[in-house]
Specification:
This protein is of the alpha+beta class. The protein folds into two domains: 355 residues, no CATH class; 125 residues, no CATH class. It has 14 helices and 14 strands. The chain is globular, with a radius of gyration of 29 Å.
Length: 495
């Protein structure tokens, strides 16, 4: 079923690239003729093609990484947010992706998400901290399913390459128009065009070049926007099919649209990749937006009364618009079987309040940004910046000295003395005292021997040092049995 959608997307992408390539070559030809005279059109085509090839190469070899860096996205592991990774893995399996997308979190309060990557084998999904705060599990699953659908349908590949083509057209147009304006070349070429020899390619060619330089980027954007909007509808339909729960994505879109916050990490280049237009203002809902009206998307999802299949989405779309509108290829709808809507996930009723989720997500972002966490005996959570290198820190509430736990391979007493306790108590090993790190039972004493850290309390942030001195974080939802140090690759068992 999905392969037919992918094939239809590829056909649309091919037509788009043909149209934009024809516009790029035409623009290059007339600018070359207008600026270099007879025979300059061929040179203009070569220059325009070279610009596109160079920008495409940069996009292919570094585009996704550049987008993630521009968005200030930080990579996270399953230890940091197991629920998010669990949902991404669920959607990866449901969509039949060949590899698990990498997961990133953006330190922004505005709820939003996007996917990037030129191939499903090497893709990424980024969500904001605000999204994790606002949404419940079903809503988060709807967003992840939408972004997974973009990867499955090759939309992220299209957005990357089409953006490059559009950028090439805009770049060439701007260089030509600014050159004409700042050099005063338009009047000189106009006068020289009246002479029988020399100069540019004549007044008609100059006029055509100027008109194309002005209108070409506009036509290219309109074509790009129209295809982008179609892909958003299709991704919504595929997301519902993957989750079998239209209310999840509908609820997520409602909460995202109601947020007054603008996404500072987004810009004109990355904005089309997000699930909802992130820049706000009039353009977010105007004819020039790459996203369809969000209220229409929500109404379609809420109107899916016949199930979670493509045909149900198509009927809801036609009802909302008041006229027949085809988003999916007819062959996919014809073969579509009825997909029953599932019940809400049982974890939704047991989830934390938004206040507690906000606090945990903010701590999560501090951990992603290198902060360390110590819990004092008075109950205060001490947050240490990544540049903190002292062996202990004084609690600002009670004045107690708190030593940073340290995992080491050593004799039992030496470990206790070196590590101490998270709270300021004697360092001698005592069964009634606080926990401390010790050598892994049965392990060797070599430099690569596994270490062990015994958790003081669950559902709390904790930090300890590896033998190399690198601080490691344990989030409240950490559930793995071991942790690998990113600095020295040493394994510490968590008990």
């Amino acid at each position: 079923m999905f392969w037919e959608l992918i094939a239809a997307n590829r056909r649309k992408s091919f037509l788009l690239f043909v149209g934009m390539a024809a516009l790029l070559v035409t623009l290059g030809y007339f600018i070359g003729e207008a600026t270099m005279g007879e025979g300059g059109g061929n040179i203009g085509i070569i220059v325009a093609t070279a610009v596109w090839v160079i920008m495409s190469a940069a996009s292919v070899f570094g585009g996704p990484d550049i987008v993630l860096r521009m968005s200030r996205a930080k990579p996270v592991t399953s230890d940091v947010h197991p629920q998010l990774f669990n949902i991404v893995e669920e959607m990866k399996i449901a969509a039949g992706l060949p590899a698990m997308p990498k997961v990133y979190i953006i330190d922004e309060r505005a709820p939003n998400a996007f996917a990037t990557g030129l191939k499903p084998e090497n893709s990424s999904i980024a969500v904001t901290a605000g999204l994790l705060t606002k949404l419940n599990r079903d809503e988060l699953q709807g967003v992840i399913a939408h972004e997974t659908s973009h990867i499955m349908n090759r939309d992220v590949q299209f957005l990357t390459l089409a953006s490059v083509m559009l950028g090439s057209i805009v770049l060439i147009s701007q260089v030509f128009l600014r050159g004409m304006w700042y050099s005063g070349g338009s009047s000189k070429r106009w006068r020289s065009s009246k002479k029988s020899e020399g100069g540019g390619g004549g007044a008609p060619l100059i006029i055509i070049a100027i008109v194309l330089a002005i209108l070409g980027p506009i036509f290219a954007r309109l074509l790009y926007f129209s295809i982008s909007r179609q892909r958003e509808y299709l991704a919504d339909a595929c997301a519902v099919r993957l989750t079998r729960y239209p209310a999840g994505l509908a609820g997520a879109l409602e909460k995202i649209s109601q947020s007054p916050l603008q996404l500072d990490a987004a810009n004109q280049v990355t904005a089309p990749m997000y699930i909802v237009a992130p820049l706000g203002g009039p353009k977010a809902t105007s004819w020039a937006s790459t996203h369809p009206p969000i209220q229409e998307r929500i109404a379609i999802l809420r109107g899916m009364s016949e199930g979670a299949g493509f045909l149900s989405y198509q009927h809801a779309l036609a009802k909302v618009r008041g006229k027949p509108s085809m988003i999916m290829p007819a062959s996919a709808i014809k073969k579509d079987e009825r997909v029953a809507v599932r019940e809400a996930h049982p974890d939704v009723a047991r989830e934390q309040s938004e206040k507690d989720k906000t606090r945990d997500v903010m701590d999560l972002m501090r951990a992603v940004n290198g902060f360390a966490f110590l819990l004092c005996a008075c109950g205060l959570k001490i947050k240490l910046p990544p540049e903190f290198e002292e062996a202990s820190v004084k609690c600002p509430r009670c004045g107690r000295d708190n030593e940073v736990p340290r995992a080491q391979v050593s004799e039992f007493a030496e470990v206790a003395a070196a590590v101490g306790a998270i709270v300021g108590t004697p360092t001698k090993p005592d069964a009634s005292g606080p926990p401390f790190a010790q050598p892994a039972p049965g392990g060797s004493s070599g430099a690569d021997a596994p270490l062990e850290y015994r958790r003081r309390a669950h559902k709390k942030w904790e930090s300890f040092s590896c033998a190399c001195g690198h601080l490691l974080q344990l989030s409240p939802v950490f559930s793995a049995s071991q942790m690998k140090c990113p600095n020295c690759s040493r394994i510490t068992r968590i008990v």
